[in-house]
Amino acid sequence: MIGLDHFRPAGGHVPPRNVRTFAAVASAACLALVAAGTALATGHGAAAAAPEAVGSNWYAAAPYLMPLDNDPPDAGAVMDATGLKAFQLAFLLAPNGGGCSPTWGGTGPVSSDTAVAGVIAAVRAKGGDVSASVGGYGGTKLGQTCGTPEATAAAYQQAIDKYGLKALDFDLEEPEYENAAAIHNEIGAAKILQQKNPGIYLSVTTAGTADGTGWFGKQMLNEAKAQSFTPDNFSIMPFDGGFNGAASQTAALANFNSVLRSTFGWDEATAYAHEGISQMNGRSDTGEYFTQADFQTVLDFATAHHMARFTNWSVNRDRQCSPPDNNGKTSGTCSSVPQGAYDFTKYSVKFAGATPPTTPPTTPPTTPPGNGGCTAAAYGAGTVYVGGDTVSYQGHTWKARWWTQGEAPSTGGSGVWQDLGAC
Predict the structure, then answer these.
(1) What is the pLDDT of residues 252-280, one digit of tens each?
(2) Distance (Å, rounded) from C-alpha 160 to C-alpha 52?
(3) Contacts of 185 (CB under 8 A, 6+ apart)
(4) What percent of the chain has pLDDT above 90?
(5) From the candidates 52, 150, 173, 176, which is the catalytic residue?
(6) 223 assigned to active site
(7) Which of 29, 219, 224, 356 is 20 to 30 Å from the Cα of 20, by its Cα?
(8) Angle at 70 between CA 349 and CA 160, to 5 degrees
């Protein structure tokens, strides 16, 4: 899923970044400190002491959230506003410099992470949980660098153990899914994790086409068949490929059902019970439009056919731009269509079998025109920057000294970024 969100980070998702109000940050920080104190008392890391997992219906409905990029909204505020119980955190990748250890976005090692652990602790403190998504549209994937299914699985197991994860999503798309060896490693790792972590919820997400999925998607399904691996669902992303509106998406879902039937020998009902969809709310990277009415139509199709998963890219984008159409551009931090806050997330809540609140949240989420007070555009991991370009990241404005892509602003690394100060 998804380019613009890095815009979307690898995998067909558009990832906007960094917007939080001071109150939201303070709230999340307090919850994280409480969780950390409990963890220290039991001798575990910040997010290791996981509560009881939420029902699989919530993992099946969890929309994608970039917790560190694209102006992430406060997860607790989203839960209060919508009734949502689970998020799909994106993305676990190999280190940008290579290697076989999990990182967030290629730059944040899981081993030393506290920021994502704090988000997870805050979500769990409110009775929710998270799944982690591996891969995506950009960056280097662990299946490409780890060499074997066993090594790939061991890398993902580090994240499972650190955060107490009960669910994992394999977002297999460009360029990784064009690499047969990498897909062998990813599917093999998923099978190993399924065996090693009984009851773990596993989804596999890949690109959607008018006939369901393309050649590489079918190759991935054949790899799963060859390894006798069956996840909780195989999901397609019917956007960024000539789609427009719900009718084109439901037609692709029907065709993907046929692909699953012919690949695995399932009947129609069994195939739908292993089939999911991941949508893109609002304006897609390629200029397609998917409105609230389209989401409702797809939701009706999914529930009528007893499909296994209904998700979207992304919570970061689930708010109105200013102006609402964003001047005909796609954003990682807003939808580019008229909407209320978290309109699209509420369809996930309905798919999970719950009813979203009818009253607005006490503190409505804000539209992110200023990136937390910054005037520069939010940093995007998939965007190419040249010397002199400025971005906002974690409340600071940064200037690129030379060409760069995929290296998050910091005072370390290659030294490409100059910190111009807090916004």
Answers:
(1) 999 999 999 999 999 999 999 999 999 99
(2) 15
(3) 142, 143, 144, 146, 147, 148, 149, 151, 152
(4) 71
(5) 173
(6) no
(7) 356
(8) 65
